[in-house]
Amino acid sequence: MGPSEPGTEELVLEGSIAIPYKWVTGRAVGEFLGELRDHGRILGGRCGACGRVSAPPQNVCGRCFRKVEEMVPLSGEGRLVSWTVVRHPIMGAPLDPPYAIGAVRLDGADTEFLHLIRTDALDRLAAGQRMRAIFAPPRSREGVLLDMLGFEPI
Amino acid sequence: MSDPVIEVRGRVEVPYRWSYGRSLGRFFIETRDAKRLWGARCLGCSAVIVPPVSLCGRCFRETEREWVPIADRGVLDTWTTVFLPFPGQPTEPPYTFGLIKLDGADTHFAHLVREIDPKDLRRGMRVEAVWSEERKGDLYDIAHFRPEPRVTASPDHR
To answer: Is B90 near chain A, with CB under 8 Å?
Structure first.
């Protein structure tokens, strides 16, 4: 005696594990996100000890490890330093490929800002190219990095 | 300057597709289509393993040559009542998950135990499966286990 003979049916369980999280931003990052949400403007953080300006701001200076407490308004314009054109779909990606993610050195900052490079001319990107930050409409901004849509060539 | 953001909430979703494999596939096709439970006997130690697995966890011998019919009722050995909410739970807490030795099995079967106040649970109580109307071929083809109704003497019996 036994169960009915196995046919060709293969059972597959489809599910999803949901991992909700809460991330506490810290002081400088919190100020940066608040300014992004409320005014569509970029703040850098200046280290009181060594003067290094990080954008986006670090809560702790990456060079000398002192707390970053001074916020510095920035123009939101800068130069493209490096980028990657993504051609493969990745789970959780903000856009469908192809799209570019780039590192932009904003005017007045000593660090690079990683974000989407919003252009269709992906093969005409060039190191040193001038970029400006662009923002989501005020009502859809929530205080997260995607309140900024990315950078576009000026 | 504006009000700083204090915390950012997000959610990572990890979708998956898990193939049951040969043993569990057959086991759950039987629960779905026939409301029957089966175990597999280990060739080495003769233990009847429910749900069946391809290799005995104790002696690593093959198990699947002999499938053994298993009752949908048995003895509640131990249990845990969960009060804490967390993602991925089978249902809203509080709920009780029991380890049940089904009649004919040598291993424990874990499932929800309902229709009884957890305070009244006792080791050794007999429980029976409540089968779901809609079955998809997973653990919840059985909705939960409940205490087996006790047979009481009828008033006419002397």
So the answer is: no
